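Hi C.,

You asked whether I'd gotten around to modeling the 635-residue construct. I have! Everything is below, sequence then structure, no commentary in between.
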Amino acid sequence: MSGGTAPGRVLSRALLLVMICSTALVAEAGDAAAFELFGIKLWGSSKDEDADIVDPLRYAVTISAPDADKDLVKKLENASALKSDEERPVSGSLGLMAKARSDREQLVAALYADARYEGVVTITIDGKPLDDLPPDAEFKGPQPVPVVIDIASGPKFTLGNIRLEGDAAGLMSADYGLIAGGDAGSGAVLKAEALIVRALKQEGRPLAKVTDRQIVADHATSTLDVTLTVAAGPVAGYGDTTVEGTEKVDRDFTEYMTGLKRGRQYSPDEISDARDRLLALEVFNSVTFKEADKLDADGNIPIGVQVSERKPRFFGVGGTFSNTEGLGLEGYWGHRNLFGRAEKLRIDGAISGIGSNDLSELNYNAGIMFEKPGVIGPASKFFARFKTVLEHPDAYDHFSVKGSTGLSYELTKKQTVSAEVSLDYSRIHDAFGKHKYLIASIPLQYVYDNRDNRLNPTGGFRILAYAEPSYDILSGAAFLKLKGEGSAYQSLDSASKFVLAERVAVGSIVGTSLENVPADRRFYSGGGGSVRGYAYQGIGPKDFTGQPIGGLSFFETSVEMRIAITDTIGIVPFVDAGTVSTKSVPNFSDVKVGAGVGLRYVTPFGPLRIDAAVPLNRDPDDPHFGIYAGIGQAF
C-alpha cells in the first residue's frame, strides 16, 4: 500500500505525548532536580549541578582576536573550554590555572588547523599573565574572576614544497590534497597522511605507516614545506581474529560474523564492513578493531576485536492522538540475543481509534518477528514473521492473519536482496462487497543505498525494486505486484545548508481485475508519506459514496529544498504530486498536486518533522489543507 500518515487537517500529538511521558519518567526518579530536553533546561538550577565541585570558583572570559575573521573567531571560541564551560565553576584557583593552560594548547592547535603558524595566544587571569603566576597563586578578589584571552592570529600559510619519500615516492601528492599554494592547515596535512597510508593499505599492506614527517614553516614567505616518508610494509593476509568483551553473545559466532577468513588478503574496507556488520547485530554498544603491529609466523596480520554488549531485553510504549482519528496506543517487547547468537525476537501490538470509532470498529494489530543472522554466511539473515490485523480505514474493513518467512542477503555494503514466502488469510468488506482471500505470494526485493546518512541524508541516492507474484488459493486469481522507488539527495553548498531532495515512485498490478485484488494490496496515495495536502488514501478512484477503492497502478513524485537555518532548525518548502488508476498503467492526465512548507528540528534520533500543505487542484471532497507530524524526513 502506498501512502501516508493521517488524514488532512489532522496534527498528530505523538511528540507531545513523548514529552509528557519523558517528563513523567523523570519525575518518578525522585532525586532528579533538573530536566533538560533537546538542550533546553525545563527546570532545575545550575547550582544543583555544581554541588559536587570542591571550592567552586567562578570566572568570566573575554576573547580578543582583532586580526581574525568571523569564521576564525567562531573556530577559536568553539576550541576554548574556558568559553564553553563559562557557566560552570572550576575547582579553586589551581583548577582555573590548569584549565587556562589546557585552553592555550587547544587554541594554538585551532590556529594551526587554520594554517596560522605565527599565531600567539596570551592568557591573563585577574590581570596577571598566566606564565607569571606561581603554582600556589590564589584569586581572592570578587567573583567571577576576569580571564582575558588575547589572540594574534598572524598570516595564513599556504603549502610550499611537497615531497613524498620512501614507498610513497611514486605517488602524486596532489591526489591526496597536498598542492603547492593550497591549504596548509594541520588538519589538511594529517588528512593527506591518512589517505596515503590507506591507499597503501588498500593494496593489502596492513603495516603501512608514516615513518618520518618534516614540517618547515618559512615565515618570510608564509609557506609550509612538507616532507613525508612512508613505509608500505609487505602484502599480508588475515591472521587469527580474537574477540574480547563478549559475555552473553557467543564469542565464536562473533568471530564468524566478522567474515575475516584466515589467509585472505587484508583490506581496510573489509575491516570497516566487518565492524559495521557487528554493530548491525544490535547486541553491541561498541565494536573496535585493532590490527597487530607485526605479522605472525605465517606472514599474516592478527586482528583483535573488542566489544561491549548491550542489555539483551528492550521494550517501549507510545501513543498518538488526533481530533478525528482518536487515541492510539502501541507497545513492544523484544530480546536481542535469544539463544546467544544475536537472534532477535520482537512482539508488538497496537490499538487505535479510541474515542473516535465505536468499540466494534477499533483498529488492532499484533505481531511477532524472529530474526537469525549468519545462516548462510555473515552477510545473510533469516527472518520469520506472524501478524494479525483488524482495521477500518475509509476504503475498507479488513481482518487478516499473515505468516511469512524468508532470507535477506547483503551483496555489498550498499546492495541488499531479500526473498520470502508468505501466506495471508483475509476477510475484506469494500466497495465490491464481502470477500475472503487466501493469498500465497513470494515477495522479492532489491535495494541499493549509498546515502551518506539514512536519518538525514545530504548526498547519495536510494533505489528500491519490488516484485510480488501472488496467487489466491480460494478464487484461483493470480497477479503480479510491481513497485519501484528512487530518491536522490544533493547538497548545493559545501556546508550542506541547502539540500535538494527528490523522490519518484511507481507501481503496477498485472494479471487480474481490480476486484480480484484484495483491497489492502491495491495502491493508494495521499497523506504525509506521499502527497501532502490530501487526506490519507484520498487520491484516486472512489465509489459512489466518495470512499477510495484503490487502484492497479500509481505514480508519485516529490521535490524538497531542505534549508538549514541553524544547526538544529530548518525549513523545507516542497511540492508533491501523485495519481492512482484502476488500470495497470498510471493515468497521468489526472495528477493531484500539493505544495507546502515544513519545519525540522534535528535530534540525534532523526529530525522532528511538521509539514503543512494545501492541495493545488482539489476536488470538492478534498480537504483545504493538511498538517502532518512525525520523526524523520518525509523521504
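If it helps when you're writing up: Helices lie at 14-28, 46-49, 70-79, 81-84, 92-113, 186-201, 251-258, 268-280.

Thanks,
B.
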